[in-house]
């Protein structure tokens, strides 16, 4: 068991570390040649000193309504959570007019754009945090993703968001990508809170055939209806297939009888880059073929959201609905995505990996047509949506997320002051990191990142840290090699003032050791609350050829879990890195040839 960050322990810790005004002003000053944004040191300071530190920890911090009665006399709202996969910060029309997303732009413009919104850098972590409201260090999923052959899934001791919504009287449905484990039936979405499920269980499938491969020859069909394999859908593009399913759910449900929760988890715009040609055609002028296809996939999602919104209106849900749109992680620039001008990419703790696209659209918002700069994290949806559903306060205690509805709907200050991006003790250790480099407070060889107010600290090996312009590959080969490179050998620690320097160009670690020490202490604090990592060895019984040609549960429900086993891949990671580099070189050579052609 761990003591939770929002218990008194944290408050005492904060009081000790942050209550002196001298320390606070020093901690949050962060001038160093940059202008501070509206989220200034002062506002954070006032939150800390007036709000956060004086908050009575024995009092409930969430709504106290009884289940099913969010607003007296009104039915709880229908909640439509739309997640896209690997959509980068620069991959939506309102951030980048080269991408055509008129529906998303309009919905966002009429609602609240979340412009200080954070997700996790890869698929499983974001999804696990959305459905549990907890950081990965509190679920054991702090390392990597759940691989198709791993006997691992969302821990059974976690009560999921849809389970809470069911308790509040909701009808709950999931359509699309799961990626939270499926080795036994108890892991499946229908056993984790969804009344119905239609979608793929692994992390990546073909958009038309629904084949998913986990290495050479390890392929299987991956489309499921409830707990059975949904054969016979080959040839239907997944973005269309999933949208049709959502429309069907909306058409067959009575909106005034029971509130609805739909988690529409698009497979798009993850690789493989596949799209019907009509969506790619408008982008035919784009020099970068991968980006052209990718942009087409984004436009297909935009059309899908238009169709879902149309159905919400047609079937009588819209007036009492909350639509949330969110990516699950940053884009992958090598495969068409773009996080420009942010640094890094999917899979890294640079802003390009974790600062996400997100907005809320709802007729129930008190304020609309606004851009919110409030700090919001993907764990916040759990208590926020349980609050909207009128859930019991006890359901949200002990979470890492905060109820941010009033922040979004009324423009109140965010209750969130910090984010633990992650601590991953299994990730390849940074060669030059050490406990000594971390002032004896923290071993900087460990991959970790934390945000506190304006400040963000990264330790260990944070991953690919270049700034990649969106059309970079169009100028290949010169453009690629002239790119601003991230070459900082011997480093194991970085500090940025994100509000003043959102692109992470000015590392202040050496100039501000005082701030560094505070954030290292924060990491050490969080680490004391971590549960062991669950990352078991792959199970040969998962092979689809042993399971009728599909990815499906292979272990008996009565089998004991082997989550205690940890499977360190360090040596393999090194080899993989070398292999990846030579693969990458040959990939770009091929790409150069392909880009000479005009085909889409
Ligand atoms: Ca993803």
From TrEMBL:
Q: Where is the Sulfatase N-terminal domain?
A: 77-390
One Pfam family matching this protein: Sulfatase
Alphabetically ordered keywords of this record: Calcium, Glycoprotein, Hydrolase, Metal-binding
GO MF term set: metal ion binding; sulfuric ester hydrolase activity
> Which coenzyme or cofactor does it need?
Ca(2+)
Q: Can you name this protein?
A: Sulfatase N-terminal domain-containing protein
User: What would be the name of the gene that encodes this protein?
Assistant: ARSJ
Q: What family does the entry list? A: Belongs to the sulfatase family.
In terms of PROSITE patterns, this protein maps to: SULFATASE_1, SULFATASE_2
